[in-house]
Design goal:
It comes from Thalictrum thalictroides. One of its GO terms (cellular component) is chloroplast. By secondary structure, the protein is an alpha+beta fold. The protein contains 2 helices and 4 strands. The chain has 2 domains: 48 residues, Immunoglobulin-like (Sandwich); 40 residues. A two-stranded antiparallel ribbon has the order 1-4. The two termini are 17 Å apart.
C-alpha cells in the first residue's frame, strides 16, 4: 500500500487512479491495485486516513500501533476485515 503523509483537502476514503503513458491508460503493478471491476478494469488506489482526534481511522491506527494489546493473529484479522470493508465502498 502507498503511504503518503501530507496536508490535503482529500476526505477520508479510497481514491483510484491510473497513469497515461504514450496515450495508454495503465496501472502500476508495483503499487496497490484494485480487483478487476465488472468491465475488467484494474486501477491503482490510495487510502486516505484522517488524523483528526476522535476519527475512526485515527483511533484504529493508535490501537493497532500499541505494543502488547493485540496478538499478531488479531492484527491479521483486523487487517483482513479493513481490506474487505474498503473494497465494498
Amino acid at each position: 500500500m502507498l503511504f503518503i503523509s501530507a496536508n490535503s483537502l482529500l476526505q477520508e476514503g479510497q481514491y483510484e487512479y491510473k497513469y497515461i503513458v504514450d496515450g495508454e491508460w495503465i496501472y502500476n503493478k508495483n503499487e496497490s491495485v484494485t480487483k478487476a471491476n465488472k468491465d475488467g478494469h484494474i486501477n491503482n488506489y490510495v487510502q486516505v486516513f484522517s488524523k483528526e482526534l476522535g476519527s475512526y481511522s485515527q483511533e484504529l491506527r493508535e490501537q493497532l500501533a500499541r505494543d502488547g494489546d493485540l496478538t499478531n493473529e488479531e492484527r491479521l484479522k483486523i487487517r483482513q476485515f479493513l481490506e474487505a470493508y474498503s473494497n465494498k465502498e
